[in-house]
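Please check this:
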Amino acid sequence: MSKDENQRTVTIDYTNYRGERATRRIVPVRMDWGKNQYHTKPCWMITALDCDKDEIRTFAIKDIHSWVEGDDNVQPISNDAS
């Protein structure tokens, strides 16, 4: 897939729903207010391509400890995450 000039890789320090903290490389696709099976209370969430797992994932913004922009030539998916 071709890379959209507006899509940028971001490195986040993130704690998942199990309490496991790790550095994740993502390409944000959209931001939503809601809940899901992992985030059971409504909150702001980012839907993003997880570059290391090569899968679309949802990250609760409240669980992001830090955010560093960077473009490391990751080939992101299109803006249509559905």
